[in-house]
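Notebook entry, structure prediction.
Reason for the run: the old model in the group folder had no record of what sequence produced it. Starting over properly, with the input documented here first.
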Amino acid sequence: MSDPFRLDGKRALVTGANTGIGQAIAIALADAGAEVVAAGRSSCVETVDAIKARGAHAEALTLDLSDPAAAATIVDRVSDLDILVNNAGIIRRDESVNYSEADWDDVIDVNLKAVFMLSQSFARGCIARGQGGRIVNIASLLSFQGGIRVPAYTASKHGVTGLTKIFANEWSAQNINVNAVAPGYIATNNTIALREDPKRNAEILSRIPAGRWGDPSDIAGAVTFLCGSAANYVTGAVLNVDGGWLAR
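New structure, fully documented this time:
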């Protein structure tokens, strides 16, 4: 019996794979046997080099999701994809009464519209080839909570969980499983300021039952599980990887 956690022979596209969570996901999928296309607006050469150093195969792809319609055509250029991980995202902060339309549009385009366009293109390819696939969307704690001073981000991440469910409803019969992973507080470049602020760091840790910040590999492991045959009957789910944050 083959290992249900292996991804040998699979080809995966990971967006936002240049650093942090996206980089960890790309490396983990490669470690599980997948051939990885690491895509990002910034160079993903570091990620590709790390994968190749481990004896696996990967390639880098420049992908600017600020133009979702153009980005969706990338799926047509990357042949025979089995896995799509929609990880790329941006955030803009301001009081809701002052939030600009430009910031709203920028965040929604990258975090939500691009997820729809890429997923739609991926699913069309899978259906046309008569084969299944896996989509994993990266959601957020703010898929469930409101947050403060991030209205577009909160709206986009609520939307990501909604898309995950409707895609699962429509495509699971074609053997395209669609799930999401909702990271908690993860130690990445985006959270350096919080971790270096003694007061905020203590407040956050006091709320996390696990008592620690998450590591990008914690998210990567969950994504790898959802991409493999071990998760054949998992679809439309949102897996919280948050050290217990939402349970408190």
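Summary: Strands lie at 11-15, 35-40, 58-62, 83-86, 133-138, 176-183, 238-241.
The old model has been moved to the deprecated folder.
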